[in-house]
UniProtKB/TrEMBL annotation:
Ranges of residues in domain Class II aldolase/adducin N-terminal: 8-182
Tree of life domain: Bacteria
UniProt keyword annotations, A-Z: Lyase, Metal-binding
Keyword Membrane recorded: no
Short name of one Pfam family: Aldolase_II
Lineage: Bacteria, Bacillati, Actinomycetota, Actinomycetes, Streptosporangiales
Designated name of the protein: Class II aldolase/adducin family protein
Length: 216
């Protein structure tokens, strides 16, 4: 079976997405790339009930290579992301707070410094019908500049990673950031970190503190 390990990983992440509430039912989809091949979730199937055999394999041009089930309707979006980025994995969720922000805003501002882990301010891609080339193009535009996450207008979120674990953790972080923002708005107007403040965080990350060694 082609990409046996990758297909097993898709199933594992699918179960985690369902268990953490980032998807419900058959919503959301996952893919992982290995060379010129991509393993993706099948369309219309609950993500916590998949087996590796359920996950079709395509080439990067979108031709079905192996599998009995039809690929997810969002496969064009996944392939468009692989075409324009160095990502090896993509996770698309329908998480609650992500959908709230994607329905009401044009971007998720830097409410917390960990926004930098997603590449900065998270843009909301303009709405388009799911599974269409228009949506794929809108998401690709929202990810420009090395972003590792985007929200999709009136839809959900999408995150990238060097592997599926990273893409999954980015999805969890995106939902947490959206949740913090939505809850903060209930209390008052959230304070957004400035470019200068974010730059200092980046500098600190690039230059870890040095601790003098105690003499024996």
């Amino acid at each position: 079976m082609l990409l046996a390990d990758e297909r097993a990983e898709v199933c594992r992440i699918g179960r985690q997405l369902a268990e953490t509430g980032l998807v419900t039912g058959s919503s959301g989809n996952i893919s992982v790339r290995a060379g010129d091949l991509v393993a993706v979730t099948p369309g219309g199937m609950m993500l916590d009930r998949m087996t590796p055999e359920d996950c079709p394999v395509l080439d990067v041009s979108g031709h079905l290579v192996e599998g009995e089930r039809a690929p997810s309707s969002e496969t064009p979006m996944h392939l468009a992301i692989y075409e324009e980025s160095d990502a090896s994995a993509v996770v698309h969720t329908h998480s609650t707070y992500g959908a709230v922000v994607a329905t009401t805003m044009t971007e998720l501002p830097a409410i917390h410094y960990t926004t930098l882990l997603l590449g900065g301010v998270v843009r909301v891609a303009e709405y388009a019908t799911y599974g269409t080339p228009e949506l794929a193009a809108n998401v690709r535009k929202a990810l420009e500049g090395g972003r590792r996450a985007a929200l999709m207008g009136n839809h959900g979120g999408v995150t990238l990673g060097g592997d599926l674990d990273e893409a999954y953790e980015n999805a969890r972080l995106l939902e947490w950031l959206c949740g913090v923002y939505v809850r903060a708005k209930m209390i008052g107007e959230p304070r957004i970190l400035t470019e200068e403040e974010l730059a200092k965080v980046t500098e600190r990350g690039l230059r870890p503190p040095e601790y003098p060694r105690r003499e024996a």
